[in-house]
Amino acid sequence: MAITEHQQRAYIAAQAADARFNVELQTEDMTLNIGPQHPATHGTLRVVARLDGEQVVRADVVCGYMHRGYEKLAEVRTYPQITTLINRIDWLSSFANEVPFILAAEKLMEVEAPPRAQYIRTILFEMARIANITLFIGEMGVQLGAITPAFYAFRDREHVLNQIEAVTGGRFHPNFDRIGGLKDDLPRGWIDETKAVMVRIRGYCDELEELLMGNEIFERRSRGIGVIPAEVGLSYGVSGANIRASGVDWDIRRDEPSPLAWKDLDWRVWTHTDGDSFARYWVRLQETREATKMVDQMLDGLPSGSIQAKVPRIIKVPAGEAWVHTDNPLGEMGYYVVSQGGLGPFRCKIRSASFNNVSVLPWLLRGLYVPDVITVLASLYFILGDIDR
Amino acid sequence: MPEIPGFVKGLGVTFRTMLKPAVTVQYPREKEAPPVRARGVIALHQENCTVCMLCARSCPDWCIYIEGHKEKAPPRRAGGRPRSVNELDRFDIDYALCMYCGICVDVCPFDALFWSPEYEYSEERIADLLHDKEKLSEWMETVPEAPPLEVGAEAGKK
Amino acid sequence: MHAVADLHLAYWQLTSIKVLVILAVIPAAALTFGYVFLMKTMAHMQSRLGPMEPGGFHGWYQLVGDGIKFIQKEDIIPTAADRAIFALAPTVVLVSTFLLFVVIPAGPRLVVQDLDVGIFFALAVSSLSVIGVLMAGWSSANKYSLLGALRAAGQLIAYELPLALGVIGVVVEAGTMSLQGIVRFQQEGNIFGWHGIGDPFILTQGIGFVLFLMAAQAELTQTPFDMPLAESELVAGYTTEYTGFRFLFFYMAETATAFGLAAIAATLFLGGWAVPWVHGTMADVLGPFILGAKIMAVAFLIYWIRFTYPRFREDQLQAIAWKYLIPVSLANILLTGVLKVAF
Lengths: 389, 158, 343
Fold this sequence. Notes:
- The complex is a heterotrimer.
- Helices cover about 50% and strands about 10% of the residues of chain A.
- By secondary structure, chain A is an alpha+beta fold.
- Chain A has one domain: Orthogonal Bundle (Cytochrome-c3 Hydrogenase, chain B), CATH 1.10.645.
- In chain A, the strands form 3 sheets. Chain A has a 3-stranded antiparallel beta sheet. Chain A has a 3-stranded antiparallel beta sheet with strand order 6-7-8.
- Helices cover about 20% and strands about 20% of the residues of chain B.
- Chain B is built from 4 helices and 5 strands.
- Chain B is elongated.
- The relative contact order of chain B is 0.21.
- Chain C is globular, with a radius of gyration of 21 Å.
- Chain C has 14 helices and no strands.
- Chain C has one domain (about 80-340).
- Classes of the chains: A alpha+beta, B alpha+beta, C mainly alpha.
- Chains in contact: A-B, A-C, B-C.
- Chains A and B meet through helix 3, helix 6, helix 7 and helix 8 of A and helix 1 and helix 3 of B.
């Protein structure tokens, strides 16, 4: 029997309805912008993520919202002025930013700072590390929902900042390093006060270990999340505690010669094998404790003497190129200074730690759930000023 | 004895913190004293200034505005030439631009600039943050003595 | 209260007085809770002071000022939103909270209506708030709000079960669902013959207490179960499009529900308004204060946990409810039943 036209039309309508239904069911990936204004990113970082439901299919990092043109500024400023400006690259551990630059200039001038200056430089460097990482230890909790540790971080960090202010005059931006040494010597009583502050910081580390790191919820949120294998991390240039948490035993303070005082101290490098977010947190906590012990050793063994070598009043660095890198709190930071004999460098290339640390994110965020993206961003610990310079 | 699980210990931490007094300093009713070297405001000692312009040139922000003129002063010895002396007309520091780096204080060869730990000079208009030389001279009264140095320091530097 | 015994009020007059009392108590309770716990206790746990200036004495006026601020804000409804449902959603959540207080007794005669199915009614009514959440998310015309609302609804529904099952143990032991009956049972009970503190169910139903508290924490979407709200860091929560007094309703509902669930926990497990040696009119006078003290104790636990712990991920949250809390609560019911028959 032939199909009637009515039947034929009904059949076609049913097929069309089916097709419409299938197309409607096919869900598109959703593009989610994390940032640039966002509580989880430390500043104006934008991560553009394509999501399939809850999972990240692809992530791209868009940085540059905070680019301040440091390298261009360095071309038109003198050395003391640049020292002031580069304090503000990684603003939480400001003194640590000055050190590689000053060391590079000293290398070009072939000037060595006296031992007392090197010791105090190292002390302030490690205190900058403590100031920076204590904040991380507290505020990673905030990213994961525990609001209390951040307040403890600020409370105990305040004492470190007070000590830095007592020496340098500035809490956040010390601007204390000079080519050939330091600006000023320590005020009386500083050594004992700082030792007391170090005891306090160790107490803070213990408190946070109980409150946050030992917390089962924290462990479930961070173990196994965001694992960076060592080879991948090294190929992306991840440095600092991030790569040490993946098992790479590499610390510029120990492995490379430096005029600063690390070689005289008895300390160890902390590594962890897992490479996940929990490992990064753990390594940083241990590093903070280690830094307090290093500061104690240096305060005990502080050599006496002058703190500034003989340098001319108006500094002109002879022509040449120098590359100096140090293990800053965020990772490896280095300056490549090209001088043509002027009052300021001809070109200054800044290798900042967070820029490379963040470059691993597109690889790392694939396949993660959205809440885990926050955990990873928090555990990698970048500072926008460091990424964008 | 079985170990106390981590989440119980965490509760202990917050409970103990609750029982201790809070660390907040209720500004402006109570104030913390900044350390002696704190970089609060820059004070000008007018008598020492020779209008050499070193500070204005070395400021990374160019926030120091100096104007001066030459004047003839009487000769030092009788029968000599009259000397020309720089007189300071205008010395303004714009604290809206100042980065508190201290390069100007460091670089002044005549010790005319000093740091003072005063910090309470906020204004309602940005233009009022330009301190002229009278105001900068007033800040001189708040400049403290340099603190004594730690053991092992070489005495008598700057 | 004394007058009530002598005066013969018509039923409608009595009920309307009670309703007015409830309407006054709940915002006041929400304010007090918010101030004491969310502001002062949280502050001291974090080594800081909390509000100190408004009102002079330790900033007691802070939340009152916040409330007035919210009320005078502009009422913005998104153009694409479904106006009626958008306006109704906060009301639904708030009303479900108010209804919770109908059965909570504050004294032997101080209860709006002592229903025979008291606790059943309370649990049923508190789950109405899920509808309000879904209404809010749907009518906001914002896909992130909808996702947040669905997530929140999923969590709330998942934790309804441990909430109810934890209570069944209490009901089995007390033999009645009426809250007054449960209070009386605890007041007149004894522990191996000793009448000193009655028989508060926190001792015999300790597991149920823990279950109820965990489920209450999740019902209030508080850390460690606050992923729907924290998701608002990333994806907007269901209250995004709400401003002004509508947002105030949500906020007030949250603190008032905390008050309500703490009140239920205090009634079920700590003995409510009763202490064994206080009876009669004395109980009518002291009852509210005793209940208030117990509520503060339970609420302290709830908020203490909130301020200390990080939050669970959504799937971990659901796993805890379905894979751990519900089997434990079923085992608890079994155990209670066996022990009740045996002893």
